[in-house]
Amino acid sequence: MPAGMEQAYLENGGTALLVDLRDGDAVIVHWGDALPAPLPDAALLLPAVPRSNFDVPIRPSLVPQASRGWRGAPGLSGARDDGSGYSPLLTVRSADATATRLDLELEDAVARLRVRIGLELDAHGILHASAELENASDAAYRLVGLELALPLPARAAEVLDHAGRWGREKQQQRHGIAHGEWVRAGRHGRTGHDATGLFAAGTAGFGFGRGEVWGIHLAWSGDHRHRVERLGDGQTVIAAGELLHPGEVVLGAGERYTAPELLAAHSTEGLDGVSARFHRMLRARPTHPRTPRPVVLNTWEAVYFRHDLDELSRLAETAAAVGVERFVLDDGWFRGRRDDHAGLGDWVVDADVWPQGLGPLIERVEALGMRFGLWVEPEMVNEDSDLVRAHPDWIAGPAGRRSLEWRHQQVLDLVNPDAFAHVLGQLDALLSENQGIAFLKWDQNRDQTELGSGGRASTHAQTLAAYRMLDELRRRHPDVEIESCSSGGARVDLGVLARTDRVWASDTNDALERQLIQRGTQALIPPELVGAHIGPAHSHTTGRTQDLSFRAITALVGHFGIEWDILRASDAERAELAQAIAYYRDRRELLHSGRLVHADDRGPSSTVYGVVADDRSEAVFVVAQLTLAPDEQTPPATLPGLDPARRYRVRFGLPLDERGVGERGAPAWIAAGGELELTGAALAVIGVPVPALLPEHALLLDVREVR
After folding, report:
1. DSSP category for residue 260
2. Counting beta carbons within 10 angstroms of the beta carbon of residue 286, is it exposed (0 to 12), middle (13 to 18) or buried (19 or more)?
3. What is the pTM of this model?
4. Distance between CA 654 and CA 703 in Å, rounded?
């Protein structure tokens, strides 16, 4: 390590890291707001030595180690076949720092292990933390886990994460931080319906717009864990890493393991402040969609497996008439696929259903001014398929037996180079022969809790293989957009989103469920990357029936689409749908570039949220009644995020649906013409009087600065 480099200070985007490098250790002393000069001397910030303890102060290293007195979960765990290397002592051997980045190399010369760590603060205040382990010995090293830990101050009192299941993903849950570990682990072979997405800790009572929050995310689509741990001495860390299976990663001489990137954000403006940092980071990527997000119609809930060119052509004509811009043909187009029991793996157009191929439908869709998309599920196979009949050994899992089926399907072993090449070749041919395919809905419809290849666990390798396939397909067909769908929201993470253009948040289009699913998903991912569709009035996933106004408003704050047989919609419904689409197309530039905000003063029965332009000149807000209100009179809707000093005009963005109003008289401003002018300060503190909405109804407020 260079002489005299005892600490490093990184600052960017309003966030700072102070790292203590003395004594060969790497300890983050501060992660939070930028610090004014002069910087503190980390040597003077050591804690006291408690009674009945080690004789030196103990702090959590970036890679926590028992050898340095850490009595919590280790950052690096593993051993050699003879048991050695079980407790490494990693010492900083080199450090290279700039104003925004710190690169470290740590080594245990006895255990012959090296760890390289990169810490970088980007312009949005996001910390990008990377780690790589090298085995510098001739003896193999069996890795159990490698994860980086970030410190939390004592004032971090609560943890918030997201949980869920199929059809009910990304539900908020929170509780106090106590002694011990709170671990959110995923063992699905994919990210999982219950994956947390954003994992956050904050000061007591933090909300969307209040309190100090520290949030992390592991950019990885395989098995993983996020955790908060507080020891008996009060030291607290927040950490994440890949969850490895026994024998999955064994490093030979000179071999390396690269951990998934850990992303972390801090804000003193509540959960919305952390989300804003992640949203700005994602929007700044070179691969972020630069064209307006088109209105989508997906055929699944309209026709399911019932594919007929004439009917689909009529559906396309009706879609174009109401303003749809992308028409996506879902499951059922390929060989042998009349239901979900057969065909996966045979990615060839079914000549019995499509005797002229997909060309006639693609041509009709394009003639109507829309782009064409197609559903695929390349990582899965049905045992009833030509592929499995020819190559039964290409099914992933333990040697000598089949894993449990899920939706009548198994996972294709993409770690096998022959299987990988076969599927990639089929997809490449499909896109090459059908140049009109501009979008792929890439599905992955099952958990696999015992993924294996060649007789050993392979979740890690399978995840990397899926990434390679996506990367190569995009290289060959750069103009084709891809959506990550995984039986709904079971693969929503920043690892797969680095290779795709949007995510499907859930298989349920029930607007009530979607209100909370989209809120949790958008805590990490900006609205334009989250598919949000209008389903039929009667939801096939929940059995609920909802008015079109609620379904449409719910879908507006997202990448808007339709999953409904609009051939059977009434003229009035199609007119209402066209009006919602027109509003989305008019306001999507704002919806897909502004800051997402939520009001903190609503109970669980209702929600107020919106998107505010970066220059705060305009906004769109949703007021949604989820369940029956506890009080007879509805409280005003406070609208956060606007400029307190400016004056704004508030109107309805879409007509108020009188079927959803449960009172005799309207608020005064509505009765007086439906227009209200207030300052941003008044809108945030006093709010807008709103009608008492019945459950499962919403209204849309359009807010513009008065100039």
Report:
1. P
2. exposed
3. 0.97
4. 12
Check residues 307 and 633 and name the one with the higher pLDDT. 307
Pairing type for strands 224-230 and 236-242 reads: antiparallel
Q: What are phi and psi of 634, to 5 degrees?
A: -75, 130
DSSP string computed for 629-690: -SSSSPPPB--TTS-TTSEEEEEESS---GGGB-SSS--HHHHTTS-EEEEHHHHHHT-B--
| Beta pairing partners, 128 | 120, 263
Contact yes or no for 374/439 (Cβ under 8 A): yes
Q: Cα(317)–Cα(614) distance, rounded to whole angstroms?
A: 37
- The catalytic residue positions are 443, 507
Cα→Cα distances 626→6, 223, 326, 676, Å: 54, 33, 30, 25
Place of tokens 């090459």: 432
Please tell me what DSSP assigns to residue 501. S
The answer to whether 207 and 269 have CB atoms below 8 angstroms apart is no
Of 185, 148, 149, nearest to 259 by C-alpha is 148
Handedness of CA 582, 585, 590, 592 (dihedral sign): positive
CA 64-68-70 angle, to 5 degrees, is 50
Rg of the chain over all Cα atoms, to the nearest angstrom: 27
Strand segments, DSSP code E, in 153-202 are 158-163, 171-176, 180-186, 199-202
pLDDT digits (tens, 9 = 90+) for 160-169: 999 999 999 9
- By the 10 Å C-beta count (0-12 exposed, 13-18 middle, 19+ buried), 649 is classed as middle
- CB atoms closer than 10 angstroms to residue 101: 16
CA atoms 580, 543, 565, 479: torsion sign: positive
Which residues does residue 104 pair with via DSSP β-bridges, in sequence order? 95, 117
Angstrom CA distances, 674 to 618, 640, 689, 702, stand at: 18, 21, 11, 11
Task: Give the C-alpha separation, 33 to 444, whole Å.
Answer: 40
Both tokens assigned to 253: 């001489």
Tens of pLDDT, residue by residue over 174-200, are 999 999 999 999 999 999 999 999 999
pLDDT, the chain, mean: 97
Select from 295, 316, 299, 298 the least CA-distant residue to 583. Answer: 295
For residue 553, CA distances in Å to 297, 446, 467, 517, 682 come to 16, 31, 34, 15, 25
d(CA 407, CA 339): 11
Residue 3 clears pLDDT 90, i.e. is over it: no
3-state secondary structure 278-336: HHHHHHCCCCCCCCCCCCEEECHHHHCCCCCHHHHHHHHHHHHHHCCCEEEECCCCECC
